[in-house]
Design brief:
heterodimer; A: alpha/beta; Rossmann fold; six-stranded parallel sheet; 24 helices; B: alpha+beta; Alpha-Beta Plaits; 2 domains; five-stranded antiparallel sheet; four-stranded antiparallel sheet; 4 helices; 9 strands; elongated
Chain lengths: 563, 174
């Protein structure tokens, strides 16, 4: 039986196991939205209030669940509004499929109404993208899009769908096989390299594991913990890696890099073998490249060959899926004679403990609410059993420092692109994926305002997302840089007008709560958690609070500003 | 150092843009680029000449391999290959110099492909040095216009007992 392009599209999504799409309708996707009405049982559509929100929500859905996030928007402005969200997912290797409407094929290139060359625009920020010109190619394109999104190094795939193609008819048979001869990700690490790495690890005196988001994408937490435990190797993670190793484990040093802990950055500087797993030596992690782990031999496990020796030259590269490689490495170790590793590591771990004791993460309490206190309280009250999203800036770094993440996929944050406005829609996406879980967006007043319109989405679908606004009436991170590097010339970082978030929440039909004193923090959090509705908590915090320690951009990791 | 890289790509719209976008986006440079269909009409071959240190070339090749539309990448530099360029040169040829222009053309095995009372258009193929030498010799007569292709290149057949590697495929671990 022949089906329309719109029907083929929706049924193809069904074949890929998609049950939710985040979207916003428009002229070019009229047919698809019409067909959606006939599939409301199989496919849930979440109507956002801005297309950027749709992509971030799909992204939050994907990060928290491990599934491919899907969004559907119209042509032109609908499509261009998704670009920031796509670039965000691309930088953090998040599997998304973005379906954009397009003007009819005969009008493409004619500057038609609501036409944008979205395939051209998103070429550098997608893993791959497609323009479907013939309805006969549609099913195969969707199949390939999902396959590419979720395999290898995951990433966003955009599929541009002209209006006439959605109306055309074709026989529908969902393909069972994919032919992509040019795409062959390497999953199994080179056995010889794995053995060499294993040997280096067993001979190391001061080894350190530096784990990133790749450990989470490949579901390699269990293997990572096994490796660290077996050899008593301390572990530091990137921002993207938080949660891949339990924050409660004594071997955990916290995050490294620009706002990393003293012990993590000192351990990197002094280690003799650095084992990088699913991390890409980002400039926020390495600081000055020449002084990054200068005394170490480096092992780098990554599924993307381009990540290897891009910023930092490594000694033993292993291209492969982190989980696979770690499994094989653990097998190699089984042949090793047993030794008392904990005893052999005593000196190294003792030195790290001294660093930790000398400069632990800290803040001074005062009469105003300290943001670190809010984050720590949220962690304490929830017992850490929540999904946390963050915006970008100080709120993000305080969360990374003061929230103890114990499980993978519990922190959703824009690490690579650093997209303000990411956290709230991402929290909505996570809440859609896990209706029963507590999902909290730790936000700043600046970032929250960038996608605040999604409050309507949260209220409409009764998604009980909580937003904790660390409200300092300014763009805190930029202000902090101006304080440190621009002689306290605060250019355009102070908000003279900030909306009343409590009233705003109420105007949207959500609940608004406010705390202005330290003793009000805990009751506000407890009350928010007891309400099965979206809640905005407005924590009026100390404007002068900064994020420390800090490694100034381009400085060595050992040159930290400590308070 | 200069490298000649041969890239097999899927013959589909947008591929050239993906490859050139990769170069511009990452700050790699392209000195010349040639694209044409192969025997298999679904596949095209690009020959590109780029410049960079070993790390940049390694990164360039890895990034090319990462593109979904790229089937195979081979760095021909350092292995045995034949590279050729072609040029069409319109050179002034007055009565007094016509014979001399033709003679230079013969020496370089150039061909005259268009004649007018005051000019010749010559076709020449060869490596870059040969074409440059030809242009230098014609320059005194007055070159009116030049059109040059970039380099096309092909690996030589591996001979028994020689260890000149030929084209290298996806080299993932390095």
């Amino acid at each position: 039986m022949k089906k329309t392009g719109a029907e083929i599209l929706i049924e193809s999504l069904g074949h890929e196991g998609v049950d939710t799409v985040f979207g916003f309708p428009g002229g070019a996707v009229l047919k698809i939205y019409d067909a959606l009405l006939n599939y409301s049982e199989e496919l849930r559509h979440i109507l956002v209030r801005h297309e950027q929100g749709a992509v971030h929500a799909a992204d939050g859905y994907a990060r928290s669940s491990g599934k491919v996030g899907v969004c559907l928007v119209t042509s032109g402005p609908g499509a261009t509004n998704t670009v920031t969200g796509i670039a965000t997912a691309y930088m953090d290797s998040i599997p998304l499929v973005i379906l954009t409407g397009q003007v009819p094929t005969m009008l493409i290139g004619n500057d038609a109404f609501q036409e944008a060359d979205i395939v051209g625009i998103t070429r550098p920020c997608t893993k791959h993208n497609y323009l479907v010109k013939n309805v006969k190619d549609l099913a195969m394109t969707i199949k390939q899009a999902f396959y590419l999104a979720r395999t290898g190094r995951p990433g966003p795939i955009l599929v541009d769908l002209p209006k006439d193609v959605m109306a055309d008819n074709a026989e529908f048979n969902y393909p069972s096989k994919i032919k992509l001869p040019s795409y062959n990700p390497t999953y199994v690490g080179h056995a010889g390299q794995v053995k060499r790495a294993a040997k280096l690890i067993t001979n190391a005196e001061k080894p350190l594991i530096y784990a990133g988001g790749g450990v989470i994408s490949s579901n390699a937490s269990k293997e990572l913990v096994a490796l660290a435990q077996k050899f008593s190797i301390p572990v530091t993670t990137t921002l993207m890696g938080l949660g891949c190793f339990p924050g409660t484990n004594p071997l955990f040093l916290g995050m490294l890099g620009m706002h990393g802990t003293f012990q993590a950055n000192m351990a990197v500087t002094h280690c003799d073998v650095l084992i990088a797993i699913g991390a890409r030596f980002d400039d926020r992690v390495t600081g000055k490249v020449e002084s990054f782990a200068p005394h170490s031999k480096k092992i780098h496990i990554d599924i993307d060959p381009t990540s290897i020796s891009k910023n930092v030259i490594v000694d033993i590269p292993i291209v492969g899926d982190a989980r696979n490689v770690l499994k094989n490495m653990l097998k190699v170790f089984e042949e090793e004679p047993a030794q008392d590793w904990a005893k052999m590591r005593a000196d190294w771990l003792g030195r790290i403990a001294e660093w930790k004791e000398a400069y632990p993460l800290n803040y001074k309490s005062g009469s105003c609410i300290k943001p670190q206190f809010v984050v720590a309280k949220i962690c304490e009250i929830t017992g850490g059993d929540v999904i946390i999203s963050t915006e970008v800036g100080q709120n993000q770094m305080w969360t990374a420092q003061f929230f103890t993440f114990t499980k993978p996929r519990t922190l959703l944050t824009s690490g690579g692109l650093g997209t303000m406005g990411y956290g709230f829609p991402a929290a909505i996406g996570a809440q859609v994926a896990f209706p029963e879980k507590t999902v909290i967006d730790i936000a700043g007043d600046g970032s929250f305002q960038m996608n605040i319109q999604e409050l309507a989405t949260a209220v409409q679908y009764n998604l009980p997302v909580k937003v904790a606004v660390l409200n300092n009436h300014c763009l805190g991170m930029v202000r902090q840089w101006q304080q440190l590097f621009c002689n306290q010339r605060y250019s355009q970082t102070i908000f003279e007008v900030v909306p009343d978030f409590v009233k705003l929440a109420e105007a949207y039909g959500a609940v608004g709560l406010r705390a202005t004193k330290p003793e009000e923090v805990e009751p506000v959090i407890r009350e928010a958690l007891s309400i099965r509705r979206p809640v905005v908590m407005d924590f009026v915090i100390d404007r002068n609070e900064g994020v420390y320690p800090m490694v100034p951009a381009g400085a060595a990791l050992s040159d930290m500003l400590l308070v | 150092m200069r490298h000649t890289i041969s890239v097999l790509v899927a013959n589909e719209p947008g591929v050239l843009s993906r490859v050139s976008g990769l170069f511009s986006g990452r700050g790699f440079n392209i000195e010349s680029l040639n694209v044409a269909e192969t025997l298999d009409p679904s596949v095209s071959r690009m020959t590109l000449v780029t410049r960079g240190n070993d790390q940049i070339i390694e990164q360039t090749i890895k990034q090319l391999n990462k593109l979904v539309c790229v089937i195979k990448v081979a760095d021909l530099t350092g292995s045995d290959y034949v590279g050729r360029e072609m040029a069409l040169i319109k050179v002034a040829a007055e009565a007094s110099s016509r014979a001399e222009v033709l003679r230079i053309g013969e020496i370089f095995r150039g061909r005259v492909v268009d004649v007018s009372p005051k000019s010749y258009t010559m076709e020449i193929t060869g490596d870059e040095e040969k074409i440059q030498a030809f242009i230098n010799l014609l320059a005194p007569f007055g070159i009116l216009e030049i059109v040059r292709t970039g380099k096309v290149a092909i690996a030589r057949v591996k001979k028994e007992g020689s260890n000149s590697g030929g084209a290298r495929g996806k080299n993932l671990d390095r």
